[in-house]
């Protein structure tokens, strides 16, 4: 049985503090300090001495983030000596490395594979807030144009042949990073809306996968739990994929409309087309439980079924209630 760990709670508070320092800082060195506090606090959280995979994941994460932080610090020091456009380009590269966006995405799926579900949730949500905010501050960010399509393509193709749910969620996160980069390019407030809805949906999905101990896509057919929880999972996955009329379609709808107004027609059409492909591996996570008979093993008969999670139910109901909102906005 897992015991309450006070030290990890302390490191979690320090990690949140580092993120807040980055938010409130008015200079690049102070921003770097906040990022370093965040990094050094996250390493002890993800490390667990009884699991060698967490050690490997912690080392990979530390090396990649240290490389990015070093490049960011050098860029801050050379800001008064080199052209600002070059400095902003280097800072954008460092933030994309920290986020795990393409073409610097190679470390992200392997680190996700070695983490627990709680730490995966932190890596996909809280750890992305500060780098995304820094990217939104950079004016005329030409570097972000390159990584928009690359992140969406890598996230789409990379998740198609995966059987590990952690890697599928990792490539899904890379795909959504491409959409977030697109929103940063167009509006300061739109990426915050997109990130907020993404955080709500991914939190609900991660909590469900944790309760079901769902590490591979074929495990959904092995659980004797109520079919309702499987419907919840399917609805939230479809919402995460941006399928109307679910909640996840709202930020993508606004992004598409703003991109059309800015004459980015070809780019947004390709993004929408690739989003249809991502729905393929989202459906893979839940379709086996509906198309195949669940295997009810005898030793499951007297086990306690997990209670429904409040976040899961709330997110699903909210997604379903978005249909009348879409109707009102359309008219």
Automatic annotation (TrEMBL):
Keywords: Electron transport, Membrane, Mitochondrion, Mitochondrion inner membrane, NAD, Respiratory chain, Translocase, Transmembrane, Transmembrane helix, Transport, Ubiquinone. It is a multi-pass membrane protein. Its EC number is 7.1.1.2. It catalyses: a ubiquinone + NADH + 5 H(+)(in) = a ubiquinol + NAD(+) + 4 H(+)(out). It is found in: Mitochondrion inner membrane. One of its GO terms (cellular component) is mitochondrial inner membrane. Residues 26-278 form the NADH:quinone oxidoreductase/Mrp antiporter transmembrane domain. One of its GO terms (biological process) is mitochondrial electron transport, NADH to ubiquinone. GO terms for molecular function: NADH dehydrogenase (ubiquinone) activity. Its main location: mitochondrion. Coiled coil: none annotated. Belongs to the complex I subunit 2 family. Core subunit of the mitochondrial membrane respiratory chain NADH dehydrogenase (Complex I) which catalyzes electron transfer from NADH through the respiratory chain, using ubiquinone as an electron acceptor. Essential for the catalytic activity and assembly of complex I. This is NADH-ubiquinone oxidoreductase chain 2. It comes from Truljalia hibinonis.
